[in-house]
Structure formats: C-alpha cells, structure tokens
Amino acid sequence: MSPVASLHSLLCSCLLFALVGCASNEFTLEADLPGNFKLTGDAQYSGANCAGAAGRTVTQRIFETPGHNERPRRVSFQVPLSTREGGCTRDLSRIQIQLDGSSADHTSSPTAPDLAFATLDFRERLADSTQRMPDKGVRIFDGQCRWRQPAPGDLLMKERTLQCHASDLMGNWFDSAPGGSLQRDELPGRIIRLAIGMAPDVPATAAGK
C-alpha cells in the first residue's frame, strides 16, 4: 500500500471512530475528598479462565494522590477493566481504596489510626437491579468519615482514630464501608464517583453509628 493510501486509510479510521466511538477498556474513577485527605487505590485482577499460575489474582497499585491537600478536592483516575499478560486476560475484580486522613507517621503502629477503607467490587452480573449503572450520568457512592476522639485519661486510646462508613445524602450512616458493587460490562467509558464527606468528631465511647 502506498504512503498516500495508508494515510487515507488512517484518516478514514479516525473519522469512523470519531463518529461511532471506539470500545474502551477503561472507566473514570473520581473521588471527592475532604481537606487533609490522601487517597490510594489497589486493584485486583483475576484470570478465571487462565491455566495454572497465570490464573492467580494480581494486585496492582493503580493510583495514589501526590499528598495531603489542605482544601477539599476532586481527583480523577483512569482505571483499566482488564489486563493481558502472557496470553492471559485478567478482569478487574476489586479495588481497595485507602483513605488517609492525616499526614502523621504511624510506622510503629500495627493499625494506623488515621486510615480507613472503601471498596468497589466488580461482577459479571448483579442480582439487584437497583445497583445497575444509570442510563447516563455518574454513578455515585456516598460516604462519610469522622474522627473518634479519646477521652481524657484514656490509657488504651491515646490518639484519635478515623472512622468511615457508607452513607446517604441525608448523612445517615450504614454498617458497610463506603463503596459498592458494579457490573463490569456497564463501565467502559463511564464515570464512577466516590463522594466522601466529613462528619463532626465524636467521643470514642460513641456507638458505631
């Protein structure tokens, strides 16, 4: 094929994609974060139809904010729905999102008191139709975090701890962590948003809700 013909073919292909769109292997994950929060995401990719060791679940760090920002902010990441390596295709099965509520260093603590988690699970099919993606627009998972403050003289709890739960728009807390389940084939080119708000501090003796 001549260079002119190759260029013509390329231009036609680009025009076709512009008109009808092209299949995407990614979705956009947005997160609304309170001030002084940092976000880290680890994705699990599973190769159910891959033989032997190739079928093992692989965990990848797919995003991390560059640090704690004093102001509330929205961050955005492109997340691959699958990966391919050595002839094996692995599909996204879970993203564990670490919410880091302060810039303090807790290397000596086995469970850092300023960390909490959100989770997104990815399925082939969802049994509950209310969990499906909307026909258009953004799928939003609401959540709230708060600090549990130690009581004066409490020897067991010497510093505040972060607590994050799923919530509704009215601020009512649910038992689960922020996040939810999604149907994988509905996600290419779409936007998922984790909207995390900040609730007032509570004493450590407060109940879970």
Provide a descriptive summary of the structure in words.
The chain is mostly beta strands and 209 residues long. It contains 1 helix and 12 strands. Strands 1, 4, 8, 9, 11 and 12 form a 6-stranded mixed sheet that branches. Strands 2, 3, 5, 6, 7 and 10 form a 6-stranded mixed sheet that branches. A hairpin with a 2-residue loop joins strand 5 and strand 6 (88-100). The longest helix has 18 residues, at 3-20. The protein is globular and about 60 Å long.
Short note summarizing the structure:
The protein has 209 residues and is mainly beta.
Reconstruct the topology from this structure.
Blueprint: H1 3-20, E1 26-33, E2 38-46, E3 58-64, E4 73-80, E5 82-85, E6 88-100, E7 115-123, E8 138-149, E9 161-166, E10 179-183, E11 191-198, E12 202-203
Parallel strand pairs: 1-11, 7-10, 8-11, 8-12
Antiparallel strand pairs: 1-4, 2-3, 2-6, 5-6, 6-7, 8-9
